[in-house]
Design a protein that fits this description.
By secondary structure, the chain is α+β, with helices and mostly antiparallel strands. The chain has three helices and eight strands; from the N terminus they run E-E-E-E-E-E-E-E-H-H-H.
């Protein structure tokens, strides 16, 4: 349903707020635990993690951590309102490849990334933030 707000120039239709998906329900030592997806390349293996604040995949070194184990990393967020900036996050390494996880979410465009970095959070970005986080298969 659409909310209506009244202004001096007449009624204005405003879309209802889009709720953020709930914070990561999994925590370790009070720090969120996110799923990590391995991205094997010629130069080595990267670890990709979805950031619901930047609406973008962050890249970390896998560091030889085996599948099923968790590794702590500091966030590479450019979103000023990121909940990950304070303590980073734990990344649980999954055996689901990044190539499988990538299409599970829609990433922000370059223009949206710049707006997020500047603190301008549009309704489109709110919808991106509300999408379910990728999960291992």
């Amino acid at each position: 349903m659409t909310r209506v707000t009244r202004e001096s120039s007449g009624p204005k239709r405003v879309s209802p707020p889009v709720p953020l998906s709930p914070p990561c329900p999994r925590e370790m030592e009070g720090v969120p635990v996110l799923y990590g997806f391995l991205d094997r390349k010629e130069h080595g293996t990267d670890l990709r993690v979805w950031c619901r604040w930047c609406c973008h995949w962050h890249i970390h070194g896998a560091g030889g951590t085996p599948v099923g184990e968790a590794v702590h990393r500091l966030a590479h967020c450019y979103a000023g309102d990121s909940a990950y900036d304070d303590g980073g996050y734990w990344i649980e390494i999954t055996d689901t490849p990044y190539s499988t996880a990538k299409p599970m979410v829609r990433a922000a465009t370059h223009a949206q990334q710049r707006a997020i970095g500047a603190g301008r959070i549009s309704s489109a970005v709110k919808r991106l933030r509300a999408q379910p986080e990728p999960r291992p298969l």
